[in-house]
Amino acid sequence: MKTPKLFFSICIALLSFISLNAQQGVISTYRNELRHEIYRPAGEVDGVQKPVKNIILMIGDGMGINQLAATMFTHDNELTVTQIPTLGMVRTQSSDRFTTDSAASGTAYATGKKTYNGAIGVDPDTNRIANIPEILAPLRIVSGVVTTDHIFGATPAAFFAHQPQRSMAGEILRDLPDGSLSFVAGGSVETFEKVFPEYTEILPQAGFTVLHDYHAVPQHHQSDRIAYVTPAGVPKLIKDGRPDFLPVTTRYAIDFLSNKPSEGFFLMVEGACIDTGGHANDLETVITETLDFDQAIAEALKFADKDGETLVIVTADHETGGMSILRGDISSSELEVCFTTKGHSPVMVPVFAYGPCSDRFRGIMENTEIMKKIISLLKK
Ligand code: MG
Ligand code: ZN
């Protein structure tokens, strides 16, 4: 008579374990009232087989397919990025973890090499690896980075720094002068003063014009290099009142880089705070940050249509929050989602490509392949 009792107890224990786990999901709801105009790319330059002169790589940090879908569903079922017809999927695993962080994934995009979580521009043995701007500089191709994160944030840092740990903010920023970026924009004066207080002398010595007002960028197009560092007190998130500096500075960066005497340009633009929304299990942040990023994507696509020799790539470094969509209503722009983790998840992320040779980005690829394709297209 003991066995049925034991069996019963095990069943109860299992059931409570399952229901406990089910409760770990965090429900978040949002009704989106923000609207921006969709840019519909002309399509004439898309997929043509001719040399690529410029590449704009747009990384939505933490922007998995469901983050994109959630934003689309609450924006009358369409975004600018969803107008791009060519897409593929990207595997994001790092050299030491099934689930990557932004440092390893940023390094994969910047250098074409898998490395360990936390690494900035170094391989698993902490040897420095050349990044895209460093490889392109000898070819007279100029580079820039625009982010809503701190400039020392893992994603932007992977494009100019070489440090064994992403937490080494001061060391990362001190790599800026010797890096190959002609244009850099991101946060913030507070952090620069804290971890790199001598920047006001060192950056100008390295040819940078340091600006704290992004609207002043166009007046300094004759500068050798520009560093726009957000002034004190700028809110981190759109929902807290961050201004539109991501789309506007993306346009300014394109103007600046495309007018340099050069053989072309490479620009990385990061929508950094989609990840913040995922970590906070906050749908409002996910959607409002993806909408802001979508407007930066529009700036890149407008230039690609006008220029005809520019390839735009839109992707993510990983998914954040293990977000699934439970229910919604497109007509009222309401959505309910469930976050299954406060961290990142190992799922594949989308990659969209628009412009000459966009067909190279179809199918499933490793994150390291993106960099190799960028280099082979720009080397011609
Ligand atoms: Mg990032
Ligand atoms: Zn993250």
> What structural class do helix, strand and pairing data support?
alpha/beta
What are the bound molecules? Answer: magnesium ion, zinc ion
Helix-strand pattern: HEEHEHHEHHEHHEEHEHHEEEEEEEH
Can you summarize the main beta sheet?
10 strands, mixed
Work out the helicity level. 25-40%
Mean pLDDT: 95
Write the layout of secondary structure elements.
Layout: H1 2-22, E1 26-31, E2 54-60, H2 65-73, E3 86-91, H3 102-111, H4 132-136, E4 141-150, H5 154-157, H6 169-174, E5 181-187, H7 189-195, H8 199-205, E6 208-211, E7 225-229, H9 245-258, E8 264-271, H10 274-279, H11 283-307, E9 310-316, E10 319-320, E11 323-329, E12 334-339, E13 344-345, E14 349-354, E15 363-366, H12 367-379
Parallel strand pairs: 2-8, 2-9, 3-15, 4-5, 4-8, 5-7, 6-7
Antiparallel strand pairs: 1-12, 3-14, 9-14, 10-13, 11-12
Helix pairs in contact: 2-11, 3-12, 9-11
The structure holds magnesium ion and zinc ion.
Model description:
The protein is of the alpha/beta class. Helix content is 33%, strand content 23%. The strands form 3 sheets. The chain has a 10-stranded mixed sheet, with helices on both faces. A 3-stranded antiparallel sheet has the order 1-12-11, covered by helices on one side. Strand 11 and strand 12 (334-339) form a beta hairpin. Helix 2 (65-73) packs across helix 11. The mean pLDDT is 95. The site of zinc ion has 6 residues, from helix 10.
